[in-house]
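go over whats below:
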Amino acid sequence: MKKLLVACLLCASVIGLAFGQAKAASKTTVIVASSVDANPQNYTNVFYNKFIELAQQYSDNAFDFQFFPSMQLGDEQETVRGIQLGTIHIANLATNNYAPFAPSCGWVNMPYMFDSLEEFRALVDAMWDQNNEWAIKEGGCRLLCILDIGYRQLTTSAKHPVRKLADAKGIKIRTPQNALMVSTFKALGLEPTAVSFAETFNALQQGVVDGQEGCFNNVVTLKFYEAQKYATMIN
């Protein structure tokens, strides 16, 4: 069975945005934080641009969306705290980085839970109301959308090529700051080190970790993936 990556979660404060409001004299500012760059072809930005289009359409152009890409407002968990404080209104982050705030929502990160993308999507749809109830009650945020972007991957330096699970034993692997994912790697006999995605590049450069587990798109965004330098194993 494959482990499906559910990489992008959009959160908005529970107070929310009044999309049905009449056109105001001045536009309402909406601060949007993202962990990815501003490339218009990026999967999350395609969604974001469509979201803005519809929000402006339904609100009679009542909002001033201000977009801060590439973790300019902090790493993904910091942006959740910003939403809770009201300094950020919408954030784009991995589901595994929201789970520490709303543990019940962490079910989507259970290893080897889904056999197919279709199975995942069907369960997310069936669980949507319950999942949002947990998200609001436990983490103070409302889910706007969950995007699936493929499989998670293990990326290691050329000194530690990984072709099978046994090759990864004893290698220091960066994982998200998520207790479930850390315990999963420990159960597989690996040596996980929880590191913020914003600090992953430095951790690799300084030898704190020998590789990382995450999304290929994020690896490219960090620009530490080089074909001659790193080997990738798709889970």
